[in-house]
Amino acid sequence: MGGTGMAQNVNPFLQEKYGTPYEIAPFEKISIDNYREAFLKGMEEQKQEINAIVRNRAMPDFENTIVALDRSGELLTKAGNTFGPISNSNSTEETRALEKELSPLFSAHYDDIYLNPLLFAKVKEVYDNQKKYGLDKEQTKLLENIYKRFVRGGAGLNDEQKAELRKLNAELSMLELTFEQNLLHETNNTFVVVDKLEELKGLPEANIAAAAKMAEENGQKGKWMFNMQRPSCNPVLQYAENRDLRRRVYEAYYNRGNQNNAYDNKEISRKLVTLRLQKAKLMGYEDYASLALDTRMAKTPENVYNLLNQVWTPAVEKAKEELEDIRAEIKKDGYSFEPEGWDYMYYLDRAKQAKYAIDEDQVSEYLEINNVLKGIFYVANKLYGLTFKECTDQFPVYEKSAQSWEVIDKDGKVLALFYSDYYPRAGKRAGAWCTGFREQTYNGNERVAPVVVNVCNMTVASKDKPALQNIDNVTTMFHEFGHALHSFMCDVHYEGVANVERDFVELPSQINEHWAFEPEVLKVYAKHYKTGEVIPMELVKKIEESAKYGQGFATVEYLAASLTDMDLHVLKEVPANLNVMEFESEKLKERGIPSQIYPRYRVTNFSHTMGGGYTAGYYSYMWAEVLDADAFQAFKETGDIFNQEVADKFRTYILTPGGIDDGMTMYKNFRGREPQINALLKNRGLLK
After folding, report:
1. Which residues form the Peptidase M3A/M3B catalytic domain (predicted)?
2. What's the CA angle centered on 328, arms 323 and 329, to 5 degrees?
3. Beta strand segments in 409-478, E
4. Distance (Å, whole) CA 341 – CA 195
5. Topology (CATH) of 271-335+550-683
6. Which residues make Cβ contacts (< 8 Å) with residue 686, sequence separation at least 6?
7. CA-to-CA distance for 66 and 122, rounded, in angstroms?
8. What is the domain class of 364-546 according to CATH?
9. Which residues pair with 436 in a beta bridge?
10. Rounded to an integer, what distance in angstroms lies between the CA atom of residue 107 and that of residue 70?
11. Among residues 493, 534, 544, 606, which is most buried (max CB within 10 A)?
């Protein structure tokens, strides 16, 4: 990204057109000052647009109020769609400073809109008289969404309550941002340093080379360093024979944000939980989860707990069985210690190998990243007729290692534009996500193609090997591409109906994972990086047989995080001295969690809930898994995982409508009935 703006720098955001292919933002020409100017001007423009709606003397109707509101803030959207993905994947001191500077301004700006009584009166007038406008389904949904957004934004509160809400919103957005920035720092700058090569015994060569390179980059030549990005620290937990090294890495990873330093997130988390509860009570809810769930498929905290508890008991039982296998492996080494959290991945991997003789290192030799992507494209082609034309040399570049494609539909038209950004770097936050530089919209009658990005932190190439991935990474690539497919296919006329419920959003991503290790798909992409030979069928069989192994551990750590998220947000009172870490431990202990398992994220590094994206919503992955497991059965039942009739229905009813229908309606349109939980339990090996 460019440096500070010079006088001669024309701000690309303020030009009528970018003049680039498909009007993709010209990333390399945009400076930090361009962003600032566009955001400030964008807020100003939207204010004027809102004033124009309010001052319009004509009777409020669907076009002059609802559509005008939906279309307002174009410059703000344009700048935000570019800055958001960049600040998450190429964060710098400049971008972080700008986020902090703008956070209170944005909070106030959106409060000015949703707490504007004259504007709400007009929206309510249209909402109360909607029958006379002859609206279609999409328009009705837009009206309903906008009306609800005002009500949930505090439009119905009195002046004193509105002032309190503004204060809460400003504090919450700043705390969430600070939490995220602290976590980014802790993830990238918490290091475990190793002095002697023999301490790394068991680690694959590629990981040892990457650790040496990291040490050199950090002025520790001749040593080995691991940071808390998963590609760096996970292999230590899985392969390192040195128990003390595993412990050091494990504790460093799980204590991010909990080190009593300048980046500590305990107090921030306590404040977030406290202020969210205050906001919920102000809005007339007894707890924050009830407020959050009101617009989701789950509707109530009871429904969420009901699902999580159904899976918890069999998952804990399965995890205890796995613990016995771990104890047996420890005994084989001639030790008698009780396993701890840092022994789990290492010995579970060994137990898996003992049971199934599967060598992950050997498997990864067939999973070179570019081939995996070919497999992902193959599935999209077989299901939906999409083809992909690489345009990396023609499209604007926001990151040198990212690639880009035109996504061409079966009718030959460009459906979307796609960037893949797969490798870790210092300014990139941990994890994997799907984002976009532009959402699908309409310009008159012409559909504007979305610009969609998959961002991951995959294993990079080493000196002598290309970027070979493990099974988890391949699953993640298929998962994020499922989100991308959802964005590619979206076809709506209004921004306000583009989004689906938070607990429906993981259905397209999670169902796409099901094709990753199907034999027919593996034959296409799983080729040995040296010889090109297709993965042998006996290895495929082992992958299939071993897939359910370790699901006790994986399910419990996921559920533990989901339950903690809910437990914090169903509190009716938050003690002033609440220690979030002690709260998490006590609650999970009461539920009988094995002491060796931590939640997948502990509160101080639980970006999903504390960063604000999945607050009282981390359960969504499990909720959506009930849907995706049941939906994949629809393909399996036909005997053809690429059944065109089922694929067409999935595209029509799930991927295309955006949020025009609610999630359960969309699901029933596709499946002909409500989803059933059995397929999920079976997939995870939790059915008796």
Report:
1. 236-685
2. 95
3. 414-421, 433-438, 441-443, 446-448, 451-455
4. 24
5. Neurolysin; domain 3 (1.10.1370)
6. 311, 314, 315, 318, 551, 552, 555
7. 9
8. mainly alpha
9. 452
10. 18
11. 606
Reading the block at residue 516, the tokens are 């990753």
Token reading at 250: 């494990």
* 12-156: CATH class: mainly alpha
Q: Is the distance from CB of 573 to CB of 619 less than 8 angstroms?
A: no
pLDDT in tens, 525-569: 999 999 999 999 999 988 888 988 999 999 999 999 999 999 999
Residue 294: name the closest of 507, 141, 149 by CA. Answer: 149
Residue type, 383: L
Dump the DSSP string for 50-97: HHHHHH--SPP-IIIIIIHHHH--HHHHHHHHHHHHHHHHS--HHHHH
pLDDT digits (tens, 9 = 90+) for 11-49: 999 999 999 999 999 999 999 999 999 999 999 999 999
Cα separations (Å) of 404 from 170, 281, 393, 421?
Answer: 37, 46, 8, 9
- Percent helix, strand, coil in the chain (nearest 5)? 60, 5, 35
Which segments of the chain belong to CATH 1.10.1370.40?
Answer: 364-546
- Residue with the two structure tokens 């539920």: 591
Q: Which of 327, 252, 369, 658 is nearest to 492 (CA)?
A: 658
Which residues contact residue 472 at a Cβ distance below 8 angstroms, ignoring those fewer than 6 apart?
A: none
Element housing 256 (H / E): none
Largest CA distance in the chain: 85
* Banded model confidence at residue 497, pLDDT cuts 50, 70, 90: very high
Q: Are strands 414-421 and 451-455 parallel, antiparallel or unpaired?
A: parallel
In single-letter form, the type of residue at position 398 comes to Y
Say which DSSP state 194 is in: E
Share of the chain above pLDDT 70, in %: 99
Which residues participate in catalysis according to the annotation? 480
Mean pLDDT of 210-222: 96
